Amino acid sequence: MISKKIKGVEIIKNLIISLMSIVLTLSFSFVAKANYTSEEFQKTYFEIGYKEIHEALKECNKHFMENIGLPIQLPPVPFSHSFGRCNKLGGEVNHSFEIEYLHMGQPKNHYMIRVHPVKYGLPIRKEHIDQALKLKDRSKAVYATKIVRGFNLLVFEKNGFQYVLSVDKRISDKVTSKILMEIANSVTK
């Protein structure tokens, strides 16, 4: 039981560190140069290990020896860039696949997908759950607005993986829990 709690703490710390590195990178980039070009924006992400989504997906499929299904639906907000990353940070517990969708000129348009093997998934405490939901396939999903500051999350499991869909709170009027459920239901294998 203690090792599960320690593993859960490690996963939460990793998620927060990943989110903070992205936020800090974006914040510094936008402050550092007002006329930031698309090429410079992309370079910032490539420097921290991101690449084209399908290239990162292929790498993670090979790493996990399993195909990761992705949603075919996106939130109804514009994005100018998308990046993927296969994380293989210290120890299997921290291995994951990430996708970032961003809009260079509208930082609030920020949506992320993070996928872990179920056994290393993000533990959700009851006090963090805003809504307990069910996907079309009758599997459980959790909508949470209090786990990561500035982001709303939908967490669910499919095909042996835990998915965490995260969206910036500033667009929660456009990307509601209902929209995130539609996205979750669109995950293919």
Could you please describe the fold and organization of this structure?
- The chain is α+β, with helices and mostly antiparallel strands and 189 residues long.
- It has one domain (2-185).
- 33% of the residues lie in helices and 26% in strands.
- The protein has a 7-stranded antiparallel sheet, with helices on both faces.
- A hairpin with a 6-residue loop joins strand 5 (140-144) and strand 6 (151-158).
- The longest helix is centred in the N-terminal third of the chain and has 31 residues, at 2-32.
- The protein starts with a helix and ends with a helix.
Show the helix and strand layout.
Layout: H1 2-32, H2 38-47, H3 53-64, E1 81-88, E2 95-102, E3 110-117, E4 131-134, E5 140-144, E6 151-158, E7 161-168, H4 177-185
Antiparallel strand pairs: 1-2, 2-3, 3-7, 4-5, 5-6, 6-7
Give a short overview:
The chain has four helices and seven strands; from the N terminus they run H-H-H-E-E-E-E-E-E-E-H. The N and C termini lie far apart (32 Å).
Unreliable segments of 5+ consecutive residues: 19-33
What is the share of helical residues? 25-40%
DSSP strand content: 25-35%
- N-to-C SSE string, H for helix and E for strand: HHHEEEEEEEH
Individual helix count: 4
How far is the N terminus from the C terminus?
A: 32 Å
Task: Please state the structural category.
Answer: alpha+beta
Strand order of the largest sheet: 1-2-3-7-6-5-4
Radius of gyration, CA atoms, in whole angstroms: 16 Å
Tell me the count of domains: 1
Main sheet properties? 7 strands, antiparallel
Overall pLDDT metric: 84
In total, the number of strands is 7
